[in-house]
Amino acid sequence: MRKGEDGLRGRGAAGKRTNVGLRDEIQKRRTFAIISHPDAGKTTLTEKFLLYGGAVQLAGSVTARKTQRATTSDWMELERKRGISVSSTVLQFDYAGATVNLLDTPGHKDFSEDTYRVLTAVDSALMVVDAAKGIESQTRKLFEVCRNRSVPIFCFMNKMDRPTLEPLALLDEIERTLQVHVHPVNWPLGTGFDFKGVYDRQTKEVHLFERLAGGGAFRAPVSIGSISDPFVRERLDPAAYAKVVEEIEILEAAGGRFDRDEVLSGGMIPVFFGSALNNFGVQLVLDAFLKHSAPPGPRMSGDRGIPTDHSAFSGFIFKIQANMDPNHRDRIAFVRICSGKFEREMAVTHSRTGETVRLNSSHKLFGRDRETVDEAYAGDIIGIVGHSEFGVGDTLTTDPGIHYDEIPHFTPEAFLYLSNPNPYKGKRFREGLEQLLQEGVIQELILDSSTQNTRLLAAVGPLQFDVVRFRLESEYGAESRAEPAPWRILRWVSPAVTDDDFRAMTMPMGCQVARTKEGQRVVMFPTDWALDYFVEKNPRIAVSSQPFTSRSVRAAAR
Ligand code: G4P
To answer: What is the greatest pairwise CA distance in the chain?
Structure first.
């Protein structure tokens, strides 16, 4: 198909014909994130998906990581040094007829801003839980973010090869703490060293796994049979076998069937047991996830749902990352395509400025690697290079009437003064900081005392400041001096509060007023006590723990 003739933007019979192909392409897309508490095994499972998906030949195993070889999805120098994921990456690959867009997210809570934004760009999430620990704090937080955004969740109960909590107790904990139904799609045959396989409740087949030497770098062999087969009985000791049979009977007696609609509406979490490290149950969860998770669905532009097969191309930027590749010091905007078909060099409206821009430099992403992409469809994540005017939340579309809802900032809980100690490198400091601020994972708060050389920064967690300082130095050659700021809590001031009320407010000791770059007022507090006192003394000053969207700001101004 030639450019400009695709019928996607056109109407009539040609448009209808192409729409069928467009729909097929969209239906086979699966765009999801893997979320977890740190150390639950998210990176390991991601690698194994790439191994089973055929995207890599050899999983970057733990042993390899120990020798400092980067895993496929960890690419920043700091990540390598610390062994933690600092920022998210996109991994696109084709597997079993599906085009998979896998968004890997950092697990550490200090990098949650990045994770939260990634969750605006996915259609479903896979939650990895350490079966020895159950639901941990960060899992719960990320679960809530998904639930608030109506993102369906699947669960992989990992590390079954080690001593775990009782499987029934794990399910009960999910139901109790997350207030959601669970449905075990498969059931573990033993735990810890006795973990031999899983029983698939849908096919009623047992999958027995073989442990392989080599840290799980290769696919694990599987034998399949029925629970009553002698070779299955022989692999488990009699007590473990009797326990599994009893547990399966309990589950069947309890009733409850897999209900895809309930899963997709967020009311049910399907649970899979396995061990990412040993490649146990990885293929089962990957296949089931791709089969049952949702293809891309409509997205809201104001009050209007934009169908994925809309004749116009549209997408929004959910992340900006500078200097992903040290060989190309450039800035990449991650775009989630929401409708229609993308074609390289197409002209689109950039919603924030209203300008028409041509998208020449478009890339398919695979961790740190990228290759030029000529076409992409709703559901895909592409990287656009070379537009300094793009910001997080901006819509790009061939229909200027489409304007996706903005991506909310998350409320900072860490604050820091950052200054430039070297008067000869002021320009580098300012420019570097400006670029890192544009990525949106830290915010700048403006005080009356702020200067070009001393800035107040805010982030969801303090490790994010270390990343900023590290990157200022390594990517921009700019030193920085950090000084702690005394606040711990931030509240957004309602845009409905008048200037007169604001001037008349009572400020407890140690509290501070500031503005965001967009002009929103905030108040920072050193303690809960100061916040409570402020609220009590200032009934006319409405504050919120959640930021106000520009829509609510505009509404208040009317
Ligand atoms: P994360 O991205 O969620 O933070 O977790 P990651 O995959 O890095 O895994 C955290 C630790 O858990 C790693 O060990 C990893 O090997 C281990 N792990 C992951 N899946 C399994 C599993 O199925 N069984 C067992 N037994 N361990 C698993 P580590 O010792 O922290 O890593 P390293 O220091 O050896 O690199």
So the answer is: 82
